[in-house]
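Quarterly update, task 2.4: 6-chloroguanine-bound model.
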Amino acid sequence: MRIDILTLFPDMFASFLQGSLLGLARTSGLLDICVTNIRDFAEGTHRQVDDRPFGGGPGMLLMPGPVVACVENVQDRMAAPGHLVMLTPGGRRLDQQLVEELARKERLVLLCGRYEGFDQRVHDTLHPDEISIGDYVLSGGEVAAMVIVDAVARLVPGVLGDEESARQDSFCGDDRLVEGPQYTRPREFRGRHVPEVLLSGDHGRIATWRHEQAVAATQHRTDTHQPSRSLS
Ligand code: 6GU
C-alpha cells in the first residue's frame, strides 16, 4: 500500500514512521509512505501558505494555491491517483469500519490541516473524503493522520507478524466485541489471582469463558460510555 502525507510539519512524522511496526513494514516494502511539505508549493520569497479570513474572524486559513498544487503534484507521482482524505474536525468520524474501508484502498493521500482550516475552494476543487478522529479539537491534522496510518497499517496483510492478532483484537471479530480481561505471570499479584479457568488447559472452557467476558465488557462499555453528541 502507498500512503502520501501532506503537511506543513513533516518533522512530526520522522520518529513515528521509524517506529518498530511501521519501520519494518516500510523496509520490507509492504508500506510505501511518503511525507510532502505543503510549503514547498507556496510562492514568493516568504513561501506563504496561510492568510487572514475575508470578512474577519479569528486565526488564519490555509490558502488554496499551495494546498491544491501540492495535492496535484503528489497525485501525479503515481500512475493512479490515491483516495484523498482531508483530516478535519468536521469530517465523518473514524471507527474500525472506516479504517477497514481505507485499508482496502491501494493508495491513500492524507491532507493535514492547520490553523482554522482550509479555504472553502480547497474542498470545492478537490472533493476530499473528510475524516475526523473524534469530537474534540486538535491543533492540526497531523496527529489524526498518524492515527489513521497506524490503524490502517495493522490491517495490511503481512504488517503484523501474526495474522491472527489483528483479527482477535477488539472490534475486529464477527460480533465486534471489545476484549475481556487478560493475564500473564505472576499467578498472584497483591492478593489477586489469575482466574482458575485460564490455568485449566481446557481450551473449550477457556474459549467459552473469554467470549462471556468479552460480551460482559462490551455491555459494560455500552452502559457507561457517553454517546457522541448529535443534533436533534
Ligand atoms: Cl482530523 N483535525 C483537527 N484539527 N482536530 C480534530 C480532528 C482532526 N479530529 C478530531 N479533532
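Highlight for this quarter: The first helix runs from residue 14 to 18.
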